[in-house]
Amino acid sequence: MGIFIKQFLLQITHQSSLKMLLILLVLAGSAVGQSQSTKEKCKNSKKCKGQQTYKTYKNKYGKEVRSGVSARSNYNNQKGLVSYPRRAKAGSLEKSIQVNSKKVFIQLCVTQGKVKVNGWNRKEVRAFINGGEGLGIRVREKSSRDKKPVWLDVVGYNPKSRFERRSRTRKPYNKCLSGKDIELDVPQYADVKLQVRSGDASIGEIKTAKLTVINGDILVNNIEKRTEAHTHQGSITIRNSGGRMSVSTTTGNIIAFNTESNEIGDYFKAKTRSGAVTLQSIGQKEVEASSVSGTLNYIGKIKNYGQYGFSTTNGLINLVLPSSSSFRLTATYGGAFQSVLPLTDLVKSRTGSIVFLTGRVGEGEANVNLKSFNGAIRIRKQGEERLAKLFR
Known about the structure:
The protein is mainly beta. The chain has helices at 2-43, 71-79, and strands spanning 52-58, 64-70, 91-98, 105-120, 124-132, 136-142, 149-155, 177-187, 191-198, 201-215, 218-233, 236-242, 244-251, 254-260, 267-272, 277-282, 286-291, 296-299, 307-312, 317-321, 327-333, 337-339, 344-351, 354-361, 366-372, 377-381. It has a 24-stranded mixed sheet that branches.
């Protein structure tokens, strides 16, 4: 009797254990299914903020990798509200791109660094930065014919990255470059707009140039059509360029030589607050130079039917002209007036300490207007001995 009872109890125990095992398997399966359904729901749900989902993608070596990202990040990815990747470590970076064969407009801004822009005989834009953290070329517009870029921005990040917008919770990404040395090679027919906060800028061998520098010097060489150069604390030098030119600085000197006029209406305008302006061999027929507390020097020809204006408050005006010059002179000065060139039809008048003078040199085919309220005016012939004394 005892043997039968033992066998019966063992059979019941075995059957209950099987039932318990089946129950556990069913519960485990339902939990897995519920977990998978939860992940599927969280892919497109805004409520699963803190829950984790998994994403499988191929890395740069072609291998499939599963990375854990939050459901909120998945939602941001779908809406484009994702952050840029971290910038590369400081070093040398280089980017290049093929552009349209007839025209291209390029603009860039630099926070800090020495900038050099060169024109070359290629249909390509190449950007290089040394000691920078990021570099990229962003295409703003393409040609409707050959689909090549005609408008580019050189920026401090890689716009080809899959992260193209920043999160709303972060500050906007700085598009300006920053580095030790920044070089840009562009086609010779390019138009370039450059803004620099701190650093010297050099640009040459291109069609048009527009530069704005807050703290640094500017060098412009061999610009074909148009030049605009402005700096607050620095000097400006222009050489071997043509077209319309407008340059200004707050605290610095302006030097220009060997410029020419390409079209009717081309002009040269220079303005400084506390610096000297020296112009030599200027080919434009409309020339203006002004300074508050600096000397104005002009060496070269007076073009027939040209318009020339020089004005300073507390400085000298020195003109060194050929003996064959021909112009009508209007002068206003508070100091001395000297002219080696003979003046005819001379008329003088005085109001207080200010003297007004009109006269004519030669046939008087051009107009020259000189103003020095607290300084002197001197007109010399080219080739005179000790000419350097004028610029001391």
